[in-house]
């Protein structure tokens, strides 16, 4: 990192994204109707995508290295009221430690494509078996400040799976109601300036009643990709 490179938010002294006030909440935008969240409706949306544009494509770069291809699985668990399976990364990981994330990681040479990479990473991180997963398609890439060019791979997941989180990478795995995440009244906008560089991001805090009221603070790249998913589903 050169002297002119922006410092990543996670390394700014005393930075806590929870403490940065929201500039706005997008309650003026409509939520995605529940009728669009059924398995068949989701399949049809990816078979015949609407005209739309992603809202968030890239973060300010704060590393000077060659971009690396990565893939994440966006696992939609098909309960009667569908949920999204997310993970909380362990504190010792080099990139995005402690943050809430989709299962995923770098695309390896042995992977057939980005979908194969996302499925492999989900198996390795949380033990999600491929035979429970139906890939629907992909969303546009999202480039992180750490120079990962991430392809979100959206998939349906049949309930009844047993997770086996890898303790090296995953501190916890949990599900969030999909309708909550696709309701922009829960999308908060933040901005923080440090050393002349303004950073902006979304957050979507969710209170996990199944874990004693634990706050799941979804923000950064994960929230940005979810915002794009909202735009895709709302178009």
Automatic annotation (TrEMBL):
Residues 67-204 form the Nudix hydrolase domain. InterPro entries: CoAse (IPR045121), NUDIX_hydrolase-like_dom_sf (IPR015797), NUDIX_hydrolase_dom (IPR000086). The keyword Magnesium applies. It holds the Pfam family NUDIX. Keywords: Hydrolase, Magnesium, Manganese, Metal-binding. Its cofactor is Mg(2+); Mn(2+). GO terms for molecular function: coenzyme A diphosphatase activity; metal ion binding. This is CoA pyrophosphatase. It comes from Hylemonella gracilis.
């Amino acid at each position: 990192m050169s002297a002119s490179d922006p410092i990543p938010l996670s390394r700014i002294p005393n930075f806590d994204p929870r403490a940065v006030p929201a500039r706005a909440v997008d309650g003026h935008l409509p939520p995605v109707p529940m009728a669009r969240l059924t398995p068949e409706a989701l399949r049809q949306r990816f078979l015949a995508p609407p005209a739309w544009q992603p809202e968030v494509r890239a973060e300010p770069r704060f590393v000077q290295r060659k971009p690396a291809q990565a893939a994440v699985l966006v696992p939609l668990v098909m309960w009667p009221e569908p949920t999204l399976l997310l993970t909380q990364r362990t504190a010792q990981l080099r990139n995005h430690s402690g943050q809430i994330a989709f299962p995923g990681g770098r695309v390896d040479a042995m992977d057939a494509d980005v979908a194969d990479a996302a499925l492999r990473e989900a198996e390795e991180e949380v033990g999600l078996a491929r035979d429970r997963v139906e890939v629907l398609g992909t969303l546009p890439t999202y480039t992180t400040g750490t120079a990962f060019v991430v392809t979100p791979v959206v998939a349906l997941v049949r309930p009844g799976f047993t997770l086996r989180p890898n303790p090296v990478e995953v501190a916890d795995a949990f599900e969030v109601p999909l309708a909550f995440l696709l309701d922009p009244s829960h999308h908060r906008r933040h901005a923080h300036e440090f050393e002349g560089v303004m950073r902006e991001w979304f957050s979507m805090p969710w209170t996990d009643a199944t874990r004693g009221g634990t706050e799941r603070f979804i923000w950064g790249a994960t929230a940005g990709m979810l915002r794009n998913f909202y735009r895709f589903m709302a178009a």
